[in-house]
Amino acid sequence: MSYRHVLFAADFSDEALKVGARAKAIADCCGARLSAIHVVEDMTISLGGGYELLPVLPELPDETLLSESRMALGNLAERLNIGAAELWVVNAPSTKEGIFGAVEDHEVDLIVVGSHGRHGLSLLLGSTANAVLHGAPCDVLAVRL
Ligand code: AMP
Predict the structure, then answer these.
(1) Which amino acid residue places its CA nearest to atom 5 of ligand 1?
(2) Does the CB atom of residue 33 touch ligand 1 within 6 A?
(3) What is the DSSP track for 84-116?
(4) Total domain count for the chain?
(5) First to last CA, the chain
(6) 125 ligand 1 Cβ < 6 A
(7) Ligand 1 within 6 A of CB of 113
(8) Are 61 and 42 in contact (CB under 8 A)?
(9) Which ligand 1 atom sits closest to the C-alpha of 120?
């Protein structure tokens, strides 16, 4: 089985280097294109001040957060020596949706995530890895952390 386009899901945790290195090794091995993505999730603000039935509005992250994320992803790519990779910072309602959107738009055939990052340290799979594995339109590699 050979992959054509590998997508590294980067969360900027300490383990991101290990996950990115694995994505790079697989891409090198297959002669595949390598891209890296970081998703900035929409923040949700409640206008209700404690009242349950009042509306909840999505708030777009400000440009500062997005540009800091672009810089962090660029630094990570440099440390991994994947300068030639395409780097994407996207805004989406959830990390899973941001990743799946990129998969569809760019014909990704392998997503590489960490088994857990900042969420679910005590679990076999963290929440993002679990969400991505359920419903991914392509193969998913969960790098054991
Ligand atoms: P977690 O859900 O925190 O346990 O994260 C598991 C893995 O999901 C991480 O190792 C990353 O590969 C990926 N991941 C988590 N958050 C993001 C994010 N905001 N953008 C891209 N990938 C992420």
Answers:
(1) 117
(2) no
(3) TSEEEEEEESSHHHHHHHHHHHHT--EEEEES-
(4) 1
(5) 24
(6) no
(7) yes
(8) yes
(9) 4
- What torsion, rounded to 10 degrees, do the Cα atoms 100, 40, 142, 1 define? 40
CATH number of domain containing 61 = 3.40.50.620
Distance (Å) from CA 40 to ligand 1 centroid: 11
- pLDDT, tens digit, for every residue of 103-143? 999 999 999 999 976 555 555 556 899 899 998 999 999 99
Using a 6 Å cutoff on CB, does residue 20 contact ligand 1?
Answer: no
In tens, the pLDDT along 43-97 reads 754 454 554 555 555 566 678 889 999 999 999 999 998 877 799 999 998 999 9
pTM greater than 0.85 (yes/no): yes
Instruction: Decide whether any atom of ligand 1 lies within 6 Å of the 120 Cβ.
Output: yes
Task: For residue 40, give the ligand 1 atom closest to its CA.
Answer: 19
Total length of the chain: 145
| CA distance linking residue 35 with residue 90, whole number of Å | 13
Domain that residue 28 falls in: 5-144
Cα dihedral 123, 103, 78, 39 sign:
negative
